[in-house]
Amino acid sequence: MIRPGPGIFGYARALSRAGFGPVAGADEAGRGACAGPLVAAAVILADTPARRIDGLRESKLMTPRQRALAHDEIMAKAIAVSWVAIEPAECDCLGMHVADIQALRRSLLRLDVRPGFVLTDGFPVDGLGVPGLAVWKGDQVAACVSAASVIAKVTRDRIMDAYAEQFPVYGFEVHKGYCTSEHQAALDAVGPCAIHRWCVEIVRRTARVASP
């Protein structure tokens, strides 16, 4: 049995010492939203002093500025980074759980460096050709998963900011497509737009023939 060492880098270090490196982490952003894509990211971090990234933790616990700075540092220092977006229509077709697994799998397969082991946040992912482990609250306890959560969150937020300019009535720049009272009020007033997910009940319930 491989036991993780102390600290947020403990999982990757233990696995690497056991011959399973490099270790990739994967996480997603937007699973609970009712508009916009589901974005997943995968990251392989370096474990050298010059490329170490301090302050990694769950992206939701960071401010937007902290996430943006961490995003840039990860992009500059990581061994490999990739991300994918599952668009709303495909989310509707697959259902959110299957879309989540597909997004994680696609992001991992898109890495330029093949991992020897994969850590994912919450859900196991098969079909990768390498061993893996689903870690409960992985973005809080494994640095590579935390890094993936930052990349996924920042990437998705930027996508939603761009959509806010295309569909200004919904306030996507504020709530990023999640089901807030502001978002619900806009849906009640004008109905859904092209990037809403019809698999979400509140979108179906407020659907009208409308042009935002």
Give the arrangement of secondary structure elements:
Elements: H1 10-17, E1 23-29, E2 38-44, H2 64-77, E3 80-86, H3 88-94, H4 96-109, E4 117-121, E5 132-135, H5 138-141, H6 143-166, H7 172-175, H8 181-190, H9 201-206
Parallel strand pairs: 1-4, 4-5
Antiparallel strand pairs: 1-2, 2-3
Helix pairs in contact: 2-6, 3-4
Task: Offer a quick outline of the entry.
With 212 residues, the chain is α/β, with parallel strands linked by helices. It is built from 9 helices and 5 strands; from the N terminus they run αββαβααββααααα.
Structural overview:
There is one protein chain. The protein has 212 residues and is an alpha/beta fold. The chain has a domain of 148 residues: Ribonuclease H-like superfamily/Ribonuclease H (Nucleotidyltransferase, domain 5). Helix content is 43%, strand content 14%. The chain is built from 9 helices and 5 strands; from the N terminus they run αββαβααββααααα. Strands 3-2-1-4-5 form a 5-stranded mixed beta sheet. α2 crosses α6 and α3 crosses α4. The chain is elongated and about 55 Å long. The model has no long low-confidence stretch (mean pLDDT 90).
Pick out the low-confidence regions. none
Distance between the termini: 56 Å
Characterize the overall form: elongated
Q: Percentage of helical residues? A: 40-55%
- As laid out across the biggest beta sheet, the strand order is 3-2-1-4-5
CATH homology superfamily name of the domain at 10-157: Ribonuclease H-like superfamily/Ribonuclease H
Average per-residue pLDDT, rounded, comes to 90
CATH architecture group name of the domain at 10-157: 2-Layer Sandwich
Give the CATH topology of the domain at 10-157. Answer: Nucleotidyltransferase, domain 5
CATH class of the domain at 10-157: Alpha Beta
Rg: 18 Å
Report the portion of residues in β strands: 5-15%
> Total number of β-strand segments?
5
Order of helices and strands: HEEHEHHEEHHHHH
Derived structural class: alpha/beta
Count of DSSP H/I helices: 9
Largest sheet descriptor: 5 strands, mixed
